[in-house]
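As a warm-up, study this chain.
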Amino acid sequence: MAGALWSAACSGNGIVNPPPPVGKYTKASLNGQYAFVTNGESFTGGLSATPLARTGSFTADGLGNITTGVEDVNAPGMVSPALQITGGSYTVNADGRGTLTLQLGQNSIDFGIVLTSTSDGLMIDETSNSSQSSTGSGNFIKQSAGSFQVSGITGPYVFDFAGLDGSGNPESFVGEFTANNGAASAGFFDDNDNGTFSSGSFVGTIAQDATLSSFGRGIALIAGQNYVFYIVDSTRVRFISTNGGMLSGDAVAQSNTVPTNVSSVNSSFVLIVAGSSINGGITRVGRFTANGATVTNVLEDTNDGGHFIKTDSGTNASIALDAANPGRGTLTFTDPNFLNAPGKYVFYLSSATQGVIQEQTVNNSGAVDVADGTIAAQTGSPFSSSNISGTYALNWSGLSLQNSGSFNVQDEEDLLSQVNVTSLSLKGAADIFQFQNGVPVFDLVTSGSISIAGDGTSSTGASSRNTMSVKLTKSNSTTVNFVVYFVNPQLAFFTNNQDMNRIVAGVLKTQQ
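Now compare it with the structure written out below.
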């Protein structure tokens, strides 16, 4: 069905376009230096896709021009370091949607963007030309040039680096370290490398790149692996590995508000993880309430290779903190759907309300998946049409089942949209890129609705789920249904829960 939609959408027959964009944004809203990251796939010929991660920095002049920049690209077995961005252009519509083209010598790469403020935004790779077709989801954040000295990267940081190991297998690497004058000490990590778990202490180094310091670029050694990094500011640094695989992610400064004793934990939390299982792609979203070591109101929704599992409660649930490594902890519970595989997660908090999380659930055969993501405290409830309102950027990423194209595999799908939410109804526009056809589809009319059932704290569990329906229309239409968990009225995590042709997860983030 999806294949038929996108083929028809490009035919030029009966195409429906979104209404003219309305909002406060202009080209001047994108002005300054931004660090960006995307993860996805690329085609360079043949029928197979190659994983692709890119991290870099570009400078926008506020007038629609990209003046300079640099990026580092990692594909399995092929690292392209310090590629010069020699120019480019961008557009910004009133609703914050736009385009971004980065020129790299004779070649160029194209992105769709949605601003969430003048300081950040979401993006998807929409490159489709004679030399390359590539897609992937990511984001960009405004850099503070005054923070580009390594001496400013000081104190404890929490990181989540994900991607592939040196053999092309999935890997999740999370942890924390303390930076001081170029040294990374007091490090501790949890690694899931294709189902093999390891953890332990490490040290490292962080050094400025003298020739490209104006972009915030530097070189690091973390737990024996080499990385390039881009400094956003003293609170965030973006990393991409340059040997031993292709890992990328952010290190975020850890505040002194992280709880040191489990008795001080008293909040509801939302989590999202995504990665790989034996069935292909896997996504999980859920929530729980922690009152000290006691965990209640566990809800979780899993999409494992297109098979949907709904968890309405968890037993034997608890949370614990690691006294030796501030901010590190574990969450465990027994899922009635997986009695032989009690759920286990390790997390690293960067503050009392935010952190990274890695799944470590095992069954009789070993690790059930390689997956990681975000954990965040839930605030702002009760959720309703009165506070879930306004303009939002919407992004999902994952796999679609390409059954009617020239190859039959689970392959990359990325969507980026801006929607106006009024009385829980969605109206907006979207771009989508499925690799089945090798070309993105632009300006789909986006509509749909959100159904609010609560914040997940109801004792009935199942009745507390929120759902979202998104309809995409060009010359034909399709509808994708999701379960959605609100972190707060400005942010929600979701995964699809009905469409068997997709394994995608994403974020709904308010525009400021």
